[in-house]
């Protein structure tokens, strides 16, 4: 998503985004720098030697087009490569550089993550590149990085250093950075499980061509149930982003209002910044006027139509569970009682089922099996309430992480049938 008309001051946008990156543990107190080139050719950038976890708007430095510097600190020591990138690419107006641990791992192995794991990662990250090492802050580093961007790269791994991404505006640069790190983290986890399965050109096209052709309508006055569900969706999506169960560019969350209508996340909107009024009311094949429903809306509708017990649905990309989705390894949740009681046996859905308009995605979840792994596309979780769906999503991700961690220690021991039978009897599981 890009901003059609950005009215937020560069100081505020940089400060807020650095806070988000630091809060997500995607950089350190001293690491990373962000910049924006405004319409007058000035470059606004984070300062040198200032705590990234406690940045204020007044700390942001402006380097004017004539080279004069305004602000209480010197600009970031990495300013030379920001300037070099802007000179190499007229279309670039925002840059994010940081040291997220997964991409740093790739940088010290001299590798670039394969973004063909997911259609969205490939689309958002753009062309990826690798810049040979040069001393931080040097003109040589600026040239090494700018050369990659001049060749059309949008996301560049810096050898033994970190990553730089650029965008037409700050929203797209941040989303590109987040999606690139997500792909890197997922790859690292997946490689601990088995063979990683990248998408073919045909599969990528299948995802890119899906659409939601709903007609527009003006709904009546919102009932109190709809109002409450809008509040809950806001709360849990924001929590999901902050717990890294969701990322800003991907995933959808919905809640049933009544038999025929449900609320769902809008398409191409930053998930963490959604407000109650941003959610789209869908009634059959109609969607609330002036809003665009998630491209997964048809899949949500099919599940609601087939399963009256389902009142909330989430398609998400938590890293550990998603790692299973990009390998041919099944996730066995018969590891601890809570996992089995909440999730039962987690199905695996062949790639592309969720993109079809034939409703067959609904066949892959049941009241007994409320969650599924979607090949190369994260997970699907259903629930009786928004809280129930979110709770199951948390349990699914924590179970996946525990299994991956256990594989580094020894052989995973699952609960035997006698224990499963006992759980079914004790918790009245059908």
TrEMBL record:
Keywords: Lyase, Metal-binding. The keyword Nucleus does not apply. Residues 12-188, 231-404 form the Class II aldolase/adducin N-terminal domain. It comes from the Bacteria. Signal peptide: none annotated. It holds the Pfam family Aldolase_II. This is Class II aldolase/adducin family protein.
């Amino acid at each position: 998503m890009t901003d059609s008309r950005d009215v937020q001051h560069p100081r505020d946008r940089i400060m807020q985004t650095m806070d988000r990156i630091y809060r997500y543990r995607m950089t350190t107190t001293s690491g990373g720098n962000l910049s924006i080139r405004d319409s007058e050719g000035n470059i606004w950038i984070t300062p040198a030697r200032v705590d990234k976890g406690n940045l204020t708007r007044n700390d942001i430095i402006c380097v004017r087009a004539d080279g004069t510097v305004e602000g209480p600190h010197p600009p970031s020591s990495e300013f030379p490569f920001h300037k070099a990138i802007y000179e190499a690419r007229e279309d670039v107006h925002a840059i994010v550089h940081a040291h997220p641990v997964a991409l740093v791992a790739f940088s010290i192995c001299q590798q670039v993550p394969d973004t063909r794991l997911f259609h969205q990662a490939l689309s958002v990250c753009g062309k990826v590149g690798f810049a040979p090492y040069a001393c931080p802050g040097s003109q040589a580093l600026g040239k090494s990085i700018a050369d990659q961007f001049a060749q059309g790269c949008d996301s560049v791994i810096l050898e033994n250093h970190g990553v730089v991404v650029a965008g037409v505006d700050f929203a797209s640069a941040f989303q590109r950075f987040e999606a690139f790190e997500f792909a890197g983290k997922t790859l690292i986890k997946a490689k601990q499980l088995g063979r990683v399965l990248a998408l073919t050109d045909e599969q990528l096209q299948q995802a890119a061509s899906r659409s939601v052709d709903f007609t527009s309508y003006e709904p009546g006055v919102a009932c109190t149930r709809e109002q409450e569900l809008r509040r809950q969706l806001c709360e849990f999506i924001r929590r999901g982003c902050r717990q890294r169960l969701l990322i800003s560019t991907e995933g959808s969350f919905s809640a049933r209002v009544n038999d025929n209508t449900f609320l769902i996340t809008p398409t191409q909107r930053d998930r963490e910044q959604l407000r109650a009024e941003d959610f789209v009311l869908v009634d059959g094949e109609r969607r609330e006027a002036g809003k665009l429903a998630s491209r997964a809306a048809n899949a949500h509708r099919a599940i609601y139509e087939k399963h009256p017990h389902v009142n909330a649905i989430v398609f998400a990309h938590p890293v550990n569970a998603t790692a299973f989705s990009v390998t041919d390894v099944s996730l066995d949740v018969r590891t601890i009682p809570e996992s089995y009681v909440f999730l039962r046996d987690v199905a695996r859905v062949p790639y592309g089922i969720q993109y079809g308009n034939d409703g067959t995605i609904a066949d892959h979840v049941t009241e007994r099996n409320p969650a599924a792994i979607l090949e190369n596309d994260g997970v699907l979780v259903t629930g009786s309430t928004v809280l129930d769906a979110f709770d199951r999503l948390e349990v699914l991700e924590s179970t996946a992480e525990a299994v991956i961690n256990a594989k580094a220690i020894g052989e995973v021991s699952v609960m035997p049938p006698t224990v499963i039978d006992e759980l079914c009897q004790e918790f009245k599981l059908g």
